[in-house]
């Protein structure tokens, strides 16, 4: 799988993995803002953006394998790697299967440890897990993505961005997301939404002892900040940063407030 990548700069590698249906283009402000000191590499995952769109492999575990193979084929070692939204789940799967191989530092950006409440969670567990779906609503949403992709993406706008987001930003989000075929996007959403990463976060990641940055948004537009706080509490080597509402702390805080985000990452990598 020859994944499409966008890269800029020279130096130590910082690899960026986008979220569900998103592309490397949404890391444009990190490619510009961090490439003065780092080799910044943003990846289009399989089925996304300009990467190949095979008929198979739309599962988190396969995407994690794709990332592993990319790092191996490029002979990248000791990389700092960031995953936003579903991209963080791809990293959690990578860490479960390959440990710290080729990795040096981790950045998890606004992703719930467990997106779907199977029905037996307490209210506090729902907050800490970030469980925004029920099994029924997950499959209902996936069917809407499969059959009415553009309308489904419009439904996600308020869940992803702050109220101050511009129309050009929304147009970019929609245009890039529609590059993923709707049936593949629906299939991947079901797999993504069905995962529970809490055991990996509790037991696998702490043992690796990798420096970790965890970033969330106080607006809680889709992921409650309590979920990011829970992740940080499980990982002794982690730092936590929550963007306030005034700091445009949405799901896409790195797009809406790139100055603060890039400086945060720069300090972490230094």
Core attributes:
270 residues; alpha/beta; Rossmann fold; 12 helices; globular
What are the SSEs and their pairings?
Layout: E1 5-8, E2 12-17, H1 28-34, E3 38-43, H2 60-73, E4 79-84, H3 86-98, E5 103-109, H4 123-129, H5 135-147, H6 149-160, H7 167-177, H8 182-193, H9 198-208, E6 212-217, H10 225-234, E7 238-243, H11 253-256, H12 258-269
Helix pairs in contact: 1-12, 2-3, 3-9, 5-6, 5-8
Verbal overview:
The structure is a single chain. The chain is α/β, with parallel strands linked by helices and 270 residues long. The chain has a single domain, classed as Alpha/Beta hydrolase fold, catalytic domain (Rossmann fold, 3-Layer(aba) Sandwich). It has twelve helices and seven strands. It has helices spanning 28-34, 60-73, 86-98, 123-129, 135-147, 149-160, 167-177, 182-193, 198-208, 225-234, 253-256, 258-269; strands at residues 5-8, 12-17, 38-43, 79-84, 103-109, 212-217, 238-243. The protein has a seven-stranded mixed beta sheet with strand order 1-3-2-4-5-6-7, sandwiched between helices. Strand 4, helix 3 and strand 5 form a beta-alpha-beta unit. Helix 2 crosses helix 3, helix 3 crosses helix 9 and helix 5 crosses helix 6 (149-160).
SSE string, helices as H and strands as E:
EEHEHEHEHHHHHHEHEHH
Helix content: 40-55%
Reported CATH architecture: 3-Layer(aba) Sandwich
Whole-number mean pLDDT: 97
* Main beta sheet strand tally, sense and closure: 7 strands, mixed
CATH fold field value: Rossmann fold
- Shape verdict: globular
Which secondary-structure class do the elements indicate? alpha/beta
| Lateral strand order in the biggest sheet | 1-3-2-4-5-6-7
- CATH domain class name: Alpha Beta
Measured distance between first and last alpha carbons: 32 Å
**Strand content bin:** 15-25%
Any idea what the CATH superfamily is called? Alpha/Beta hydrolase fold, catalytic domain
Extract low-pLDDT stretches: none
Number of helices: 12
> What is the domain total for the residues?
1
Strand runs, count = 7
Rg measurement, Å: 17 Å
């Amino acid at each position: 799988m020859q994944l499409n990548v966008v890269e800029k700069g020279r130096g130590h590698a910082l690899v960026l993995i986008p979220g569900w249906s998103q592309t490397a283009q949404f890391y444009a402000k990190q490619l510009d803002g961090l490439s003065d000191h780092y080799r910044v590499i943003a990846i289009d995952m399989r089925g996304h953006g300009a990467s190949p769109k095979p008929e198979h492999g739309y599962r988190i575990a396969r995407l994690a394998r794709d990332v592993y193979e990319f790092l191996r084929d490029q002979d990248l070692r000791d990389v700092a790697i960031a995953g936003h939204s579903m991209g963080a789940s791809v990293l959690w799967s990578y860490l479960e299967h390959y440990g710290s191989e080729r990795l040096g530092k981790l950045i998890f950006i606004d992703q719930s440890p467990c997106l779907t409440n199977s029905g037996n969670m307490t209210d506090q567990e729902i907050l800490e897990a970030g469980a925004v779906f029920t099994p029924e609503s997950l499959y209902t949403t996936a069917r809407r993505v499969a059959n009415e992709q553009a309308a489904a993406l419009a439904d996600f706008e308020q869940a992803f961005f702050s109220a101050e987001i511009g129309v050009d930003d929304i147009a970019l989000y929609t245009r890039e997301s529609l590059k993923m075929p709707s049936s593949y996007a629906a299939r991947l959403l079901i797999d993504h939404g069905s995962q529970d990463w809490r055991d990996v976060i509790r037991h696998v990641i702490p043992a690796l002892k990798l420096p970790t940055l965890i970033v969330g948004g106080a607006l809680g537009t889709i992921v409650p900040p309590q979920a990011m706080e829970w992740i940080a509490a499980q990982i002794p080597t982690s730092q936590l940063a929550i963007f306030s509402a005034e700091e445009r702390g949405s799901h896409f805080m790195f797009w809406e407030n790139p100055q603060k985000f890039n400086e945060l990452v720069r300090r972490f990598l230094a």
